[in-house]
Each structure stands twice: as structure tokens, then as C-alpha cells.
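Kindly inspect what follows.
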Amino acid sequence: MLAKTETTLADAVRIWLGRFQEALATGDASRLGALFHRDSYWRDLLALTWEICTVCGADAIVRELKARSTETTPTRFALAPGRTPPRHVTRAGTSAIEAMFQLDTALGRGTGVLRLTLAPGDGTDLRAWTLLTALDEIKGHEERVGRSRPTGQSYARDFRGPNWLDQRRAAAQYTNREPAVLVVGGGQAGLSIAARLKMLEIDTLVVDRWPRVGDNWRQRYHALTLHNQVHVNHLPYMPFPPGWPTYIPKDKLAGWLEAYVDSLEIDYWPSTELADGSYDEAEGRWSVVLRRADGSTRQMRPRHVVMATGVSGIPNLPDMPGLENFAGTVQHSSQYGDGETWAGKSAIVVGTGNSGHDVAQDLCASGADVTIVQRSPTYIVSIREAQKVYSTYSEGLPFEDCDLLACSMPYPVLRRAYQLSTAEMREVDRDLLKGLEKRGFRLTFGEDDTGFQMMYLRRGGGYYFNVGCSDMIVDGRIGLLQYDTIDRFEADGVVLKDGTKKPLDVVVVATGYESQQEFVRATLGNGVAERIGPVWGFNEGGELRNMWGPTPQEGLWFTAGSLAQCRIYSRYLALQIKAREDGLI
């Protein structure tokens, strides 16, 4: 134990924060360096750098802090009132004092997370192992919520003029104005950033190709439910009702998204696609063409375009030998509906991620003869064990504190934490995994054994949360083929390399989606796509590439990810756009 009482913990943190503030104010490199472990990490979410970035190692941290603090003048470091008090924790196998604090800068107010551990060879000296500084709001440009909400016409009544609904409908038409921000994609990513911008009084329009809000979930396969638990998944400003099921059904979530748009007064155009666009460097605006369902088009001139088509955007359809000759039904998993259509029929599902397993299980439960085809090794974890990576949200802390802790873990620490949790989950699932291997299923535990979370962040898939399909593969109810045993597809089935032929009625291709870079290529052109480079996956600094921050293309931003990621990082994306709109940076 690093300290004995809560009072001792709080005092230890106050002493560190006081020394830190003094060292920043004086620019004393030696005093700053003495506050950090040699192998320490500082993650900043806009507070001191106006970037989402991670700095590794005491020397680099000291250099960056000295350079940045001269401009941002951070001060008023103190324990954050009303937040979780300092406490002992174990993160990534390391025992530490974890504390939440507040700070001010020249432009804003922020919060942070500090983790202190003992200095080597010293029984009392505490140094920073990890440090998070995060911007919460810009001074004078705060969100219009709570006591700061717009008053509107609270006391005035114009009985002969347009009412609230009339005004909302008129505003959403954008007849005589241009939005400052165009958000492309109306799922959780697009709605989260639109809601944040709305509260910052930034005129924002969301467009989505589906005819109804929530259709990006509503139109997916019949049996779909979320694979992580409800308490992790709230959207900004409107948490789910406390009586909601632990795992949210897709239609329930779709209905909530529809209510969310209405309740938060988000301007939203359904049945609308981004057809084309180019950026005018001189004017600092985009010229975009939006295509409506009736074929009509509308040209708009927003200053910012936020791509929110998600990690699941354009379906990936690999070239499989002879598939074009197959006379049965071929569909991507995004087109799959209900297994009852295929009762008594023969089916193949290509792909062993979450969607592939869910579709195969649904087909089997509906009475189809189904075989799943594995293209590459897959990480398998039981759904109950998978929730351990979200354990912070089960500790009984305030929800806002959980979000702060979730983004406080720098990449190297996160990597180690996932290695430990993956090893633990692997042991619990040992019998299931042995059964799969016996059937010929190829397993992986992710690059450097970091499991599904890093697989998601690095490549967007490659894993399955077992809700029963793995057991059906083990006991033979669902057949298993390795992709490299397939020779070709023919009109009535698939021929294996050993000459065996399997008759088929349907092939479901559950092989994921193209990256957002490819969506940009299809809509804004090859030049812009090449300029921005890859989207998603980690860069050399341990942050997701081109996500929630400026890209090499002026005025182009990206957001994607789980409901939790969209909720958390939409705040920082919105603050950057607000700062630019108001000429602050």
C-alpha cells in the first residue's frame, strides 16, 4: 500500500499538484523531471496542446510541458470537488494512487487523472506514472445546457405566429442559410457530434442515406443485440432509462436514436447521400453536392465536413473464385435479415467475426444446414468474460468519472492492461477454446496477446463474443470449413479442393467493411483520400489515425467507434470545431 488513509492520499496528491504547478510556472526542467518516473506517460486531450496526443518518457514530457505551458498557462490545479476521491487502484498490474483533479488554462477549464507510484529505491517519494489533462470547456464559450441553456421566448407568446414545430421544420430546410458543419452519417457517431455542436451553438446538419433515423441499426439482421452492456453505452446528454435490458436489442436502440434527434432538435436529413465535394482553400469552405432519394440535388457550402459513416461503412466483398457463377443468393451480412427465409436450405457464411457467427447461429436456429467458413485466425471470448474490459463502469463510480478514467490510459499502459485481461479470460474460457481447436477452428489472441479491444482499435474486427455459436461449432450443429480448402463456387454449390461438392442455396459474406478512407475516395475523390491517408488504427504516437482531430485535409474530420467512444470523444471534436469557428485557434 502506498498510503494508509484517504486523508493521506488526498494530501499526497495535493502536494504533488502543488509542486507540479510551481514547476510549470517557473519552467524549471529539473523540478518537473523530478515529479515523473523515467517511464511515464502524459496524455493530453486539448487542454495544453489543442491536440489529442500522448507523450512518453520523463524527458519528452518535460520538454513538451515547458513548451506548451508558456502559451496555455495552466494553473489552479486542485483535487476536483464532487469527483471520486483519491484511492488505491491496480491498473495494468501496477498499484498506484489514482486521483482526479481540475485545472484552468488561458482559454479553458479542464479535468485530469493522475496516477502516482513510489520512486525506485525510495519508500516515500511519489512520482507520476500516468497523467491525463483534458479540456472540458472554453471560457466564455460554454455549452448552453442547464443554467446556461438558451431562454428563447420563455415568456413571450405570439399566438398568430409560427409555433415551435413550425420553426423547427423551417430551420431544418436550410432555405436561407448554410450549415457551419455537415455531418455525413446519422448513427451514434454522427448524432453524438451533432448533439455536442448543438449545445455549443454551432449550426450543424446531419445527412444519412437511410430513410429513417436509426435505420443503420434497425435494418440489420433480426437477432442483433449489442455485445457490450447498457451502462457503458449512453449517448451525450440523454442516458438510457435505468430499466433498459443489459444488452440492448437493435430495434430498441434504433428507436432511441430517433427520439434522440427529436428531443435534442438535431437537424437531420434522411434519404440523403453525399454525392461529391471539393474544398475551396481561398474561402475556407467545402462545396458539396447532396443527393436526395427522389434524385434531386442540393449544393451546400459548409466550413467543416465530419465523416461519421463509422468503422462499418462500405461493405467489403472479397473476390472468391467462381462466386459470380453461383445461381443462388449471395448477400453481405449487412443485407441479411432473418434465418426463417432459409429454413431447410443449405447455407455458407464466410467470415468468423461477430456478424458471421451471429448469422450462422441464426440460420442454424431457423432450421438451415449451415457451415461457417474461416478465412483467418479468430479471437473467441465468452460474452460474460468480455465485459471485464469495461470493469471501470462496474466499480460504482459516477458515470462522468468512468468516462474520464476510460480515456486516461495511454497506449502502452492500455496494451499491458489488455494483455493481462486477455490472459485471464483465456484461462476462464479454456474448455471452450480447446473444443474449438479440436474441431479445427484456428484461434488467435491478437497481436502481442492483447485480445479483442486492440484488434478492434487496430483493424476494426477479427473476434467473436460467444453467445452460443462457438458451442454449436464444437458440437457439430454448425459445420466448419477453412477458406483455403475451397477450390471454387459453381452454379449450385461450392467445390472443395479434395473434389467434394457441397450444394448451396445461399452464401452470406460476413467479411467486414472498407475503411473511411475508401468512403472519402468514393465521395471526395482520390486526391483527398490520398492526402489524409489511413483512417483508424494506431499512429506512431499511440493515437487513432485521423480520428477526432485535424486531418491533412483542412475542414475534414472523422468520428467513429462504439457508443462509448462516440460519447467521450465527441466532446473533444466539438471543442476543436468551436474554437475554430470562434477564431480562438
The longest helix spans residues 6-26.
